Amino acid sequence: xxxxxxxxxxxTLNRWVVKFSPLIAASAQARKKPTAVSWRMxxxxxxxxxxxxxxxxxxxxxxxxxxxxxxERRDTAAARRFFKRAVxxxxxxx
Length: 94
Description:
By secondary structure, the protein is an alpha+beta fold. 39% of the residues lie in helices and 27% in strands.
């Protein structure tokens, strides 16, 4: 922006991200190629900024990531939240 002579504040950029990122994500989801009917869930744990977190991930048979969620807790509620989102975007797996 500075190269083009436009002054902007970091708060303005943050507002743009908040406003336009859902639109970009919806557009990308609509253009996503169909996935295989068989996919699996993968979960592990890792440290993020010094705290243990649990990444959940949906992976198809080719190893492509279909969905991703980072959770502070490893419990039934977190797993159900992830499955609800993954099934909503990719369909029910075999």
